[in-house]
Structures are given as structure tokens and as C-alpha cells.
Design brief:
By secondary structure, the chain is of the alpha+beta class. It has two domains: about 230 residues, 3-Layer(aba) Sandwich (Rossmann fold); about 120 residues, Nucleic acid-binding proteins (OB fold (Dihydrolipoamide Acetyltransferase, E2P)). Helix content is about 20%, strand content about 35%. It is built from eight helices and 21 strands. The strands form four sheets. The chain has a six-stranded mixed sheet, with helices on both faces. It is elongated, with a radius of gyration of 25 Å. The structure holds adenosine-5'-triphosphate and magnesium ion. Adenosine-5'-triphosphate binds next to helix 1. InterPro entries: AAA+_ATPase, ABC_SmlMolc_Importer, ABC_transporter-like_ATP-bd, ABC_transporter-like_CS, ABC_transpr_FbpC, Mo/tungstate-bd_C_term_dom, P-loop_NTPase, Transp-assoc_OB_typ2.
Length: about 375
């Protein structure tokens, strides 16, 4: 019995180049039993290549992959995928069309016939497909096929599940339900899961830990709450939502802006800084017929802007402002319906506890 706390998967310094261009560059992380780690990042940042090296379908140039403490790949070592005890689920998960649902799920199973049948029944029940065993894949909906694929990948009880955008072929309504079912089953089975996605919402929903990737590297790793609320740089903040940026210059650890002074400790005198704020953290106050906003010392000074346009998105409304102080555009999101007409004046404030301060000139 493996130690319940020992990582199921340990990846150290994973590196791979194509045509002399590094695509995965020193990626390290580990995944505990029942933990879901999401590799999240923009298209081309190396997520799938990382997963393929862990699976063993791609060779690594440097680094090591260990599963349940056993080296699978490293200098002079490359175990083939079928020897690694990993379950794979990709976007084009292609069930075997000539096999029944039961045949698909049993495909990778050893043992006697009765034990195989028991495992197949158990898994079909878990994915809510009891009785579907004799059907063929073409008789199933996309969501049902997806759940068969999940059952098939889980059947041999892999220690590590590798999933590459497995839900992207499903429509939105199906997706949420299947994500939750998948997550429940993976946790029960105690597999370590690596889920690749380029969708921040999916990562926030699924992950215990998000590894945010950019240009072949992990730029930030942490619980969804931490990655969202303490981004390492502007691009990390902007990956999860639109952001507003207010530029200024730090002097004596303070940066003066139209919204008042911001504490900017750690930035040298004369250094350009960017104050980054998500749309839901801009506060809006009314103009009161030209008399301006009510004073709110905790939110600094208010700056005046006029509505450029307002859009209703269902759960929230997005309002774009042109600011009087420099003509720049800022976007605020407001819960529910808030659709002021173009040209309406408002006063905006910035919640000090919700803004991020970065040195300007970091990679965008
Ligand atoms: N076999 C290959 N030969 C050459 N270049 C490759 C190969 N596989 C991947 N690449 C390149 O490596 C980079 C990273 O690819 P990868 O598939 O890992 O990205 P990704 O993060 O999964 O992106 P996406 O979100 O679009 O799936 C891309 O620029 C891609 O073109
Ligand atoms: Mg990919």
C-alpha cells in the first residue's frame, strides 16, 4: 500500500524543444493522491507537450517523471506509456466504435471475466450509465460518450490521470455536470490528476492547485483563491479577467494618481508602476447633479468619468467609462442590470485592498 500522503506524480525540470525552440522549459510540480492540478495557460504555452511527456508519448530532453515514487522518465530512461500506469483522457477521446460500451470500459482490464464484469458495472454505475453496457458508442450522446471515456480511463485504477481539455467538445450545459461527476469520481479513486485547460473558469472550478504557464514555464502555482487574488504580474491577473491599469511613478513608496495616493513599497524612486484592478473592484458613485460623490476615505479619491457604453451580460453589467483626467478607458462590472446611457457622469473609486501594484515593463 503506497503512503497515502506521498505524491502520486512528481515532475522535475521537464524540458523539451522543437526545432531549437524551447517549448517546455524546466517545469516542476507534484500531485498528491486525490489532488487535481490544472496546467492553465494560453494556446501554445506548452501544456499539452508537458502532459505528453508525463504520459510517455513524447520524449523529454531533461528532467524526471516519477509516478508513485518510481522513475518513469529521466536521463537514459523512457518507459512506454502502457508501462506507466497512467489514465489518459483527451479532447478527441475516440471510443472504439466496434466495441460495446462494456467492451470499451473493459478494454485495458486484466483479471478473470467475472472480476472484469464487476469493475465495468461498478464504473458504469458511477458515471450514471447503468444498463448502457450492451450499447454501441454511436447510440450515445456526446456527454454519455464522454462518461464512457472516463470510465474506460479509470477502469485499470491508474495512479495518475492525465486529461487534456477533456470537456471542450461538450456544450456548456452538459459540461458543468460532467465536470462535477468527473471530479467526484477522481477524488474517490484517489488518483493524482493533471488537467490541461486554457479556460480559467474551468481551472478555478476543478483545481486544487493551478499551475499557470507561459512560454513553457510555470509562472505561478497555488490554490485558485491565491492565484486569482495574488497574481504574480499583470499578465497573470489579466489571464483570469479583464483588468484596468492605472499608470504612475513611485516616489517615497507612494504613487500619486487621479484616484489619490497608493502605497507602492519596494519600488524605487522614479520607477514606473502599474496599478491593476479587476472591473468588479471599481466602485461607482453618482454625480448628484454635479455635486459629486460622497466622501469615502477608505477608497481614496474619486475620479470623474463619463459612460461610453454599457452592456448587460446576464449576471452582471459591464460599464465602460472615459475618464476626465486623461481620456483613458476604465471598465467596471456591476451585479445585475445597470445600463446608464452614454455621456452619463459617474465617479469611480478604487478599492485599495483589491488592487495589485506591479513594476511597469514586465512581460505583458
Ligand atoms: N511535435 C511537434 N513538433 C513541432 N512543434 C511542436 C510539436 N508539438 C508542439 N509543438 C509546438 O510547441 C508549442 C507548444 O505546444 P503545446 O501543444 O504544448 O501547446 P498548448 O499549451 O497545449 O496549446 P493549446 O492550448 O493550443 O492546446 C506550440 O508552439 C506548438 O506548435
Ligand atoms: Mg494543448
Amino acid at each position: 500500500m503506497p503512503d497515502a500522503r506521498a505524491p502520486r506524480l512528481e515532475v522535475q525540470g521537464l524540458t523539451r524543444a522543437f526545432g531549437g525552440r524551447p517549448v517546455v522549459d524546466g517545469v516542476s510540480f507534484s500531485v498528491a493522491p486525490g489532488q487535481v492540478t490544472c496546467l492553465l495557460g494560453p494556446s501554445g504555452c506548452g501544456k499539452s507537450t508537458t502532459l505528453r511527456m508525463i504520459a510517455g508519448v513524447e520524449r523529454l530532453e531533461a528532467g524526471t517523471v516519477r509516478i508513485d515514487g518510481v522513475a518513469m522518465a529521466g536521463p537514459g530512461l523512457h518507459l512506454p506509456p502502457e508501462k506507466r500506469g497512467v489514465g489518459l483522457m483527451f479532447q478527441d477521446f475516440a471510443l472504439f466504435p466496434h466495441l460495446t460500451v462494456a467492451g470499451n470500459v473493459a478494454f485495458g482490464l486484466g483479471g478473470d471475466k467475472a472480476a472484469r464484469a464487476r469493475r465495468v458495472d461498478e464504473l458504469l454505475e458511477r458515471v450514471n450509465l447503468t444498463g448502457f453496457g450492451p450499447k454501441h458508442p454511436h447510440q450515445l450522446s456526446g456527454g454519455e460518450q464522454q462518461r464512457v471515456a472516463l470510465a474506460r480511463a479509470l477502469a485499470p485504477r491508474p495512479g495518475v490521470m492525465l486529461m487534456d481539455e477533456p470537456f471542450s467538445g461538450l456544450d456548456n450545459r452538459l459540461r458543468d455536470g460532467i465536470r462535477d461527476v468527473t471530479l467526484d469520481i477522481l477524488k474517490e479513486e484517489g488518483a493524482g490528476v493533471v488537467l490541461v485547460t486554457h479556460e480559467p473558469d474551468e481551472a478555478m472550478r476543478m483545481a486544487d492547485e493551478i499551475a499557470l504557464m507561459r512560454g513553457g514555464r510555470i509562472v505561478q502555482k497555488g490554490a485558485p483563491y491565491n492565484v486569482y487574488n495574488a497574481p504574480v504580474d499583470k499578465a497573470a491577473a489579466a489571464f483570469f479577467s479583464d483588468v484596468n491599469v492605472i499608470r504612475g511613478m513611485s516616489r517615497g513608496a507612494l504613487t500619486e494618481t487621479a484616484f489619490g495616493a497608493f502605497l507602492t513599497p519596494g519600488h524605487a524612486d522614479g520607477a514606473a508602476v502599474e496599478i491593476v484592478i479587476r472591473p468588479q473592484h471599481l466602485k461607482i458613485d453618482f454625480d448628484r447633479g454635479g455635486r459629486g460623490p460622497l466622501p469615502t476615505p477608505q477608497d481614496g479619491m474619486a475620479a470623474r468619468g463619463e459612460v461610453v457604453r454599457a452592456r448587460y451580460l446576464g449576471r452582471e453589467s459591464l460599464v465602460e467609462f472615459r475618464m476626465d483626467f486623461d481620456g483613458s478607458r476604465l471598465t467596471a462590472s456591476v451585479p445585475g442590470v445597470f445600463l446608464p446611457g452614454p455621456g452619463t457622469a459617474f465617479w469611480l473609486m478604487i478599492r485599495r485592498d483589491k488592487c495589485f501594484v506591479f513594476g511597469a515593463g514586465k512581460p505583458a
